[in-house]
Write a structure and sequence with these properties.
The protein is 67% helix and 0% strand. The chain is mostly helical and 150 residues long.
Length: 150
Amino acid sequence: MFTSNYRKFVIVCILISSFSYACAAETTKDPYFKAVLDARLASITPPEVSSDVDKVNRVFDSIDKLIKQGKKSDKPLIDLLDYYIGEGQFEDQATAIIERGKRMIPLLKEKKDLPLDCLPEYKTICRKNIDNRNNLIDSLVDEINKTDNQ
């Protein structure tokens, strides 16, 4: 009924999707990753005790803490591309990705092949358009290639 090649194809697809899910689950458990999302979500809610400036500064602080995790934060920085975390905050994120150089290119290309993958509790800050995210990825790859060729 099904050819041997078809069965192999199905098995490979299952393994790939399982691996992608496992990687995504690993990132979503990262407390620094979640701190960035929590801070961004708080920054767009109506002010209560703290000012809007304080809320925005918390997003910058949480991005900075994530970046300081070194190689361990490579994947979470890429996974954050699915979210709109703010223009200034994205600049910090983009700078960190570019400064890490060519090792980030495979992660960026892998992300580009995937759909937007936002956690349900952060849907309000999920990018609305995959093309926008993919354009950012293309720009980051171009910048990394330019930087490494200088």
